Amino acid sequence: PFLRLLEAQLQDQRREYEEEVEALKNQVDAMKEEMEKQQQAFLQNLQLSPEAQVEFGLQQEITRLTNENLDLKELLEKLEKNEKKLKKQLKIYMKKVQDFEASQAMVPAERRRHERNMQVAVQRKEKDFQGMLEYYKEDEPLLIRNLIT
């Protein structure tokens, strides 16, 4: 059993090695083809007149810039799509805040009186301590909304 296990592991490793070697050979072949194309273009460029060499160089640069431009347009489209998604999320969150505020508007009169007293205290503390204020945990969403507004 132990020898069979080792043999199976060895065969798996051999298979992985052969697949990796095949992938590397394909990569080398592709690089050779690309190198041959570049070499032919270089040789053709050498045979051209100086004006034609400049024109050829300009064509190469135009092609490169066009490809770069397409990549940037694709990136812009992705960013615009993401922006739309974020705007939709913002609308959803704003709706939730409004719903929460509506539910808070239905609290008893005593709570409203307490909120008015707290607002007065906040105004007084702003003058004394600049930037520090006291609030209850359940009032945090309302406070955040007011800060954003």
From TrEMBL:
Keywords: Coiled coil. The keyword Coiled coil applies. This is Unconventional myosin-Vb. Residues 3-103 form a coiled coil. The lineage of its organism: Eukaryota, Metazoa, Chordata, Craniata, Vertebrata.
